[in-house]
Amino acid sequence: MTVSLLTAPSSGLVPMVTASQWAFWLLAPIMVLAALVMVFAKKPVHSALSLAVVMICLAVQYASQEAPFLFVVQIIVYTGAILMLFLFVVMLVGVDSTDSLKETLKGHKVAAIIAALAFLVLLILAVGNAVTTGVIGTDQSIGLREANAAGGDNVKSIAELVFTKYVIVFEATSALLITAAVGTMVLAHGEADKKKSQRERVTDRMAAYAEHGAHPGVRPNSGVYARTNQIGAPALLPDGTVAQDSISGTLATRGAIIDAGELKAPTHRAFASISAARHEAQGELE
User: Fold this and answer.
1) Cβ atoms < 10 Å from Cβ of 52
2) Which residues cross the membrane (predicted)?
3) pTM (predicted TM-score)
């Protein structure tokens, strides 16, 4: 990948652009745009898809730099596993759910700002060091060929180092990642609301009855009539008025409550007809 596409003659002309440079200049703008969309997108699904674009472009960058192990890991582990986990979480939580602004851990915003500033300073120093030492713009991978030749190829060399020289560091990193995942779940779960006991609920009901006159018993069910038994039918009190506690607040907001007068109207008409017929019969008898 580091061989020039068009070899420059030996007359001192500027060498042509290499394949790795083509990959960088073509994919770097796409990665930057996708990263900005990931940060500023309002919908979590769009952010997750933009993150997938960044990961895939980064994998191509690894391949252009003759790093097949990182290329495969980037595709299989990060893009194929971790990103799918992000999408599953988005689907479980819901795209319309709002984030809670309450701080579960006090001071974590200040710590996050300090860590971001420290990372920015580290990035500036790293780029400045690369610019001053002339590392940026080189076509050769410094020390990569010697490291790969020691183990046979790139993958074998990495496997030998990971499972021999750096095995303790590798296992310690795995344990640290597991601890971080468990800690994240604990902090994200938050403090669960303590459920009230039956004694506490009864005490609250009696206190509400004493202070506001609220009925301490269960609320009445919806009305049951000869023509309907829908939940939108309100119950009637002995004096014929509507029991407000039997009306669902959700149905009342939607305007789906049945008018009790409409339900009683056929019965009133029937009784009126019967009364009229009775009076008519009594008049004829007289």
Assistant:
1) 19
2) 22-41, 48-64, 70-95, 107-127, 166-188
3) 0.47
